[in-house]
Amino acid sequence: MSRPAQDALDPGFGIYVHWPFCAAKCPYCDFNSHVRREPVDQTRIVGAFQREIAQMRAMSGPREVTSVFFGGGTPSLMEPRTVDGILSAIGNAWHMPGGIEITLEVNPTSVEAERFRGYRAAGVNRVSLGVQSLNDSDLKTLGRLHTVAEALSAIELARNTFPRLSFDLIYARPGQTVESWEQELNRAIDHAADHLSLYQLTIEQGTPFYSLHRAGKLKVPDVDLSADLYEVTQALTGKAGLPAYEVSNHAAPGAESRHNLTYWRYGDYVGLGAGAHGRLSGRNGKIGTINKRIPEQWLQQVESLGHGMETEERLDAGAQADELMLMGLRLREGMDLARWQGLSGRFVDADKESFLISHGLIERLGNSRLRCTPAGMMVLDAIVADLAA
């Protein structure tokens, strides 16, 4: 579903639903995901989501939803009736116009034709598949439970069931070369629809990969090789008509993830479920919400208090300006300068901007927007830290 042209830079209003359960924990993952031996009581959890939705509706007031995203964890472990129950509650709380983007993350191991049909009947019209690699050996290294054959089968099934789909790959993996990544990415492009998410492997503290890396038992590509892999990624996807619209996301024009654009354009969104974050604007500014991370604690609090929030922070204009820059410079369309200036109360430092432009790292789009160049995207964090200081 393409967005209308006049809506091109509207941040929108999104609903994020976090399903925190997985069949197994991947060794590179630092997301809020949990493995449970006993079956999850999905009926009880739907009831908790319904209560939390009512509470968040009271905070947000009446809004028109532009996207819903089921993330995790592994949302494809949810029963279709669970998805239906949550979407019905969202529709009762806010206005959901026909045809909005409703995405559900899927693992190839939890794919069944009947379950896919159930999700589609519930209203899901876009799926994002966690493929991660098209190499069976690397899938094992990454702790994935599926094979390449299962992943390709899931992609085909998704094509036949949903109007839109995307899938993820991780690159800059241990032992990966430019040549092997070229072959793998070309294969992925052959199977892609109109969107791909391509992430460089990062070693996150607290994960098994972090411990292995510190012990010298896990070697990842160095900075130069990682840069080469990034450049190859941009070249191949651009040639295939899937240019990067964000650091790690590639799409045909009009097929960008509407929900993720809400984050990067610094729009408002509700965070539902264990560990979910939210951003809501009100009369007194913008509020950041963070829910309890442990699913059982979130569930108990929602049942007793009506919400799962652990913290509720009022963000001053300076904090909002920092977040706007952090998000906006990730995008190929760049950051709205007038909006940033209005929040920060200042202009971008002219000397810093001139220095970064002269080194080919950022550029102006007229007088209204500032963006990173492809070279700047590779050192994005440093650019944001410099300009925000």
Structure description:
It is a single chain. The protein has 389 residues and is of the alpha/beta class. The protein has two domains: 5-263, TIM Barrel, CATH 3.20.20; 316-389, Orthogonal Bundle (Arc Repressor Mutant, subunit A), CATH 1.10.10.920. It is built from 15 helices and 17 strands. The chain has helices at residues 42-60, 80-93, 113-122, 136-141, 148-161, 178-191, 208-214, 223-239, 258-264, 295-305, 317-328, 337-344, 350-358, 374-377, 380-388; strands at 13-19, 21-22, 34-35, 67-72, 101-106, 126-132, 164-171, 195-200, 244-246, 249-251, 268-272, 277-282, 285-291, 309-315, 335-336, 362-365, 369-372. Strands 9-10-8-7-6-5-4-1-11 form a nine-stranded mixed beta sheet, with helices on both faces. Strand 5, helix 3 and strand 6 (126-132) form a beta-alpha-beta unit. The longest helix is centred in the N-terminal third of the chain and has 19 residues, at 42-60. It is globular, with a radius of gyration of 21 Å. It starts with 12 loop residues before the first strand and ends with a helix. Residues 1-7 have low confidence and may be disordered.
What keywords describe this structure?
single chain, 389 residues, alpha/beta, TIM Barrel, Arc Repressor Mutant, subunit A, nine-stranded mixed β-sheet, three-stranded antiparallel β-sheet, 15 helices
